[in-house]
Design a protein that fits this description.
It contains one helix and 13 strands. By secondary structure, it is α+β, with helices and mostly antiparallel strands. The termini are far apart. β7 and β8 form a beta hairpin. Bound molecules: dinuclear copper ion.
């Protein structure tokens, strides 16, 4: 088959880009530990405040260096709004929403999840270094009673 020289180069380049992306995906999973947050269970959004563990949101130590952070999202706040863990802690965030779709993201970490009413989102991260992080809602969660507050929906995670 007759193929123009430049066309052939372009095909090679296309395949090379695909291979590079594929390698990047494999590397991000294998090396950087990046993976999709999983939906582990479901919960009736209207019954969140009376359904364990969300009837008692907060931080719970589950092992020497492991914690569960149970967090409820609603317009426009997270409950609790502040968490403190020792450096080196592996924290599993267990998050759901009482109303609309929110987000749960901690900048400079792999924590980046959607919080969907009816679903329980779990994402785990180990905080090696002391410092302060914000967990922010990064899904636009709009208007309620003619007010907007998405931009003010965040909490604080202190690593001691
Ligand atoms: Cu909640 Cu944006």
């Amino acid at each position: 088959m007759q193929m123009d020289k430049y066309e052939r180069w372009f095909l090679y380049a296309t395949v090379a880009v695909l291979v590079a992306f594929f390698v990047a995906v494999i590397a991000s999973v294998g090396e950087a530990g990046i993976h999709l947050p999983t939906q582990v269970d479901s919960v009736d959004p209207t019954e969140v405040s009376s359904t364990p563990p969300f009837d008692n949101p907060g931080l719970f130590q589950t092992g020497d260096d492991t914690y569960d952070a149970v967090i409820v999202a609603q317009t426009w706040q997270f409950t609790p709004e502040e968490l403190t863990v020792p450096a080196g802690s592996e924290v599993t965030f267990i998050v759901t929403s009482r109303d609309v779709i929110h987000g749960f993201m901690i900048p400079d970490t792999v924590v980046n999840a959607m919080v969907i009413p009816g679903q329980i989102t779990e994402v785990t991260y180990t905080f090696e270094d002391p410092g302060e992080h914000k967990f922010i809602c990064h899904e636009y969660c709009g208007l309620a009673n003619d007010q907007i507050g998405h931009h003010s929906m965040f909490g604080r995670l202190v690593v001691e």
